[in-house]
Amino acid sequence: MKRLQIMRALSAFGVGLLFGLGLIVSGMADPAKVLGFLDLSGAWDPSLALVMAGAIAVALPAFTALRGRHRALLGDPIHLPGTRHVTPRLVFGSLVFGVGWGLAGLCPGPALVLAGAGLAPALLFVAAMVVGMLLYPRLDRLFQ
Description:
mainly alpha, 71% helix
């Protein structure tokens, strides 16, 4: 049992490290690059569209292979969305995420990478993100 816990921890660490390195190498952890991608009327930088397309190309076969499976390779349950319908909660959450991404040039993954490097704006972003997560249960009741 202890060996399985160590394998799970190493697996989580390895996947997190790979994800963080991917964010850095792709430029997704650079707020200026992200804002350049979102600036459609100015000096638009389309390179992050290729990063997103690459992520979809990797994720699509993986999600397809997961169909019908209920457990991951190390035995943990697989949690996939239960609904395929567009709901007001989904639209509102997407809008909040998009506005935050556009204002800060960061989303949660890159913010954690930059906060780990000790950058003050990322630390502020992560603090605000934690406050949002703490407020979520109260706000969620409004949309049910």
